[in-house]
Model the fold of this input.
Amino acid sequence: MINAYNKLLLQNKAWAAEKIEEDPEYFSRLTHLQEPEFLWIGCSDSRVPANEITGTNPGEIFVHRNIANMVVHTDLNMLSVLEYSVNVLKVKHVIVCGHYGCGGVKAAMTRHSVGIINKWLRNIKDVHRFHREEIDSIADEELKTNRLVELNVQEQVMNLAKTSIVQKAWKEDHRPHLHGWVYSLQDGIIKRVIEMEPGTALDPLYEFDNL
Ligand code: CO
Done:
């Protein structure tokens, strides 16, 4: 029976066969080597797949996704991915990629309780509070959300820079570069909103001096 679920497995077989036909070494090469240059921290939204929108192949991007592409300093999952990609894979770039019209950001702008997700969205409400004047001065709801999407990405990039993982790699190896991007669902184009070079000075409150 071909239902949507079975179709996934059939398509997988067809995809694997096609790859082998194009390049008989494809899987044996990937089996023995993973050396991506990029870590991607993106939204879980199904419309923003890291490889597809950047035209990259398996093996090129190490990926972590969560609701609204957050870098929460107590999130053991994110920290483990960051630690592994920076210290073991030695990625050169970490990209935080948000997207306009993000449902997580929209939800964080309402006063509606969404259960346990409230705790996650609280981090976005904090970003709103840091930039309250700017956000609240925008009348149009969609533009308001989209500006908060940009500011949220900027804040999450700064959260990366506040980690000892990134600060240590900056000091010892002059990498990774940090990038904040926002993807448009409307035209598929990525806008760059923030770049942080290795060694960028931070608010001294967040700089560790014993790494
Ligand atoms: Co989203």
Remarks:
- The domain at 38-199 is CATH 3.40.1050.10 (Beta-carbonic Anhydrase; Chain A).
- The CA atoms of residues 108 and 121 lie 5 Å apart.
- The chain has a mean pLDDT of 97.
